[in-house]
Amino acid sequence: MAQLASAESILQYVEPTAVLVLLIRLSWQGLIRRYKYFSAYLVISLCQVVVPLVFGLHLDSDVYARFYFFTEPVLWLSYLFVLLELFDHVFKDFPGIRSAGKLAVKIAVPVAIVAAGLTALPSIFHIAGASSLLRLYLVVERSVMVVILLVLAVVQALLLRFGLRLPKNTVHYSLGYAVFFGVLAAQGFFLSELGIQFATLTNTITITLAVACLLFWTFTLTREGEAVQVTAGPRLSEDQRQRMREQLMGVSNFMTQLRAGLKSKNTPPN
Fold it and tell me: pLDDT (tens digit, 9 = 90+) per residue, 9-46?
């Protein structure tokens, strides 16, 4: 256990270093504006890690708890914007799917938060003190994670199933973020189910995998990667790829027409 705690302590410095290196790399490659919400998320996450280290906030202190409670919802919001940005990159040639997906995310996340809060309220009334706030917080956090994870799974399924041909950066960014966010979601789930006594183990595993994803992006996201087109998923013949693209385009056009029809119905006549 002492070795595990020591590894966790070292990784707490390795992770922000990896984030900083990735930010420098994105800036050097001229990709900050291309991935502006992802870059903003990296800055926020870097601040969340560095501030406690700079000011010596112990993880078990009340000051750190308040800092965490205020900053973590900001990260939830950044997850949402990164996901919306991902739709722009992956489905740029399919505006109907892009718009419908972004609308679904904007609706699903608030609904999940409200539903999670209402679900947790009955049990919270029987818990005294700060534990009631922590219980509500964990339930809402897990609900947000689950919704975003499900949407990410759908994005990856479409990306791989239809063998979309996209810039190499987009494919690497999308697949890497699915793994990265999946790791974060798994950490929240295991902590809420197994208890805080497993925090050291889950944190060590999570940070290790997160650093691996950060390094993966550092080496794969390049200026040239925006121009090079690659096919995601299994290799397909040109006929198969074209047929699948036409199918996806048909779905996209249907969603565009459906949305246009709903708008026309809701628009009052002059």
Answer: 777 788 889 999 999 999 999 999 999 999 999 999 99
Burial (CB count <10 Å: 0-12, 13-18, 19+), residue 127:
middle
CA–CA gap between residue 52 and residue 48 (Å, rounded): 7
DSSP 128: -
Tokens 């973590």, residue located:
72
Beta bridge partners of 231: 165
pLDDT in tens, 141-173: 777 888 888 888 888 888 888 878 889 999 999
Q: Say how far apart CA 51 and CA 152 lie, in whole Å.
A: 30
Q: How far, in Å, CA of 190 to CA of 192, rounded?
A: 5
**Cβ neighbours of residue 81 closer than 8 Å, sequence gap 6 or more:** 37, 40, 41
Burial 154-164 (b: 16+ CB within 10 A, else e): ebbebbbebbb
* pLDDT confidence of residue 154: 86
**N- to C-terminal Cα distance for the chain?**
72
